[in-house]
Amino acid sequence: MAADSPARSVPFFNYQQAFTMHEEEYVRIFRGVMRRGAFIMQQDLQEFEASVAAYLGVGHGIGVGNATDALEILMAAKGIGPGDEVIFPSHTMVASPGSVVAIGATPVPVDCGPDHLMDPAAIEPAITARTKAILPVHLNGRTCDMDRIQAISNKHGLMIVEDSAQGLGSRYKGRFAGTFGVGGVFSFYPAKILGCMGDGGMIVTDDADLAKLCFSLRDHGRGETTDAERWGRNSRLDNLQAAFLAWQFGHYQGIIDRRRALASLYQERLGDLAEVTLPPAPDSDPDHYDTFQNYEIEAEQRDDLREFLRAEGVGTLIQWGGKAVHQFASLGFQVSLPNTERLFERCLMLPMNITLSDDDVDYVADRVRRFYGR
Ligand SMILES: *Cc1c(COP(=O)(O)O)cnc(C)c1O
Asked: What's this model's pTM, rounded to 2 decimal places?
């Protein structure tokens, strides 16, 4: 790209464009659902649940209000509660441990590895007599090293509950994120790879009894009749949102392909810079199939780079407002997790979404190079 490439604006995420790029389809779907009066737990939801389950090769998908509820319902259904500990990586959204606290259990944070994901080597030292489950988080569209995590879970008899909020379609050794443990959860928050026009989430599991319990818990504890069989709550995925999601899901592979192409473009344009560490390029590791929910780099002089990019019209983000969970003083964690803390001095997410053009990525990369005088 020429050194005088003209300024442009590349927002981190373009919420309006996520709608306008398919406006006619969404309006058509909206009209269809409204005219049928199909608002709560209708055919669109059932079809969407079935198509996600079929895609992942699991028996059941249970649409819920959001991924945080999904974690709460899933863990409560597995009997996790007061007195139990759940090990989670501190580099995650506060929702992951928040769901543990919401069911009365205790979240135990551990460090991350060079891949920004839960470090399997950090799990065993955190296990106590109270540990009930491991909660790996498949961040940035990359699946954790599940061989090592499963070996630990088998050895100690611990459940695996997967926070795959950022991992729909991501695979490890050919197997989808969310399908390794007793169950997994997905988020359809607008900025997630498969995002709706509000909140949405899903639990997936291969266990028919567990699925039945989750279906009941999300709908006031009701069973197949309208009798309440237990105490439950209301956390149903809106039928309208399910209809929007089902349409997008129909071309989901194209969405993943585009994100992987954008990641390859960043790699091509920035791969030689010593000042930045990029996520592994698509296909660089045969064990991982990454979907690039985010493009999280590590950068020298991160804060100055971020300010430079902002002035050049490029939106970036530091995940979770710049702090890992254990760094929120008010939450009372008394631990030091050196890899995570170092990562949070260096990590930065560059724009990564399907509203980006190749020229947008070229522009962002050009400005990053310029900042480092390259
Ligand atoms: C987005 C996200 C969540 C929460 O999802 P909601 O649907 O907003 O509840 C949980 N964990 C991770 C890792 C996330 O990125």
From this structure: 0.97
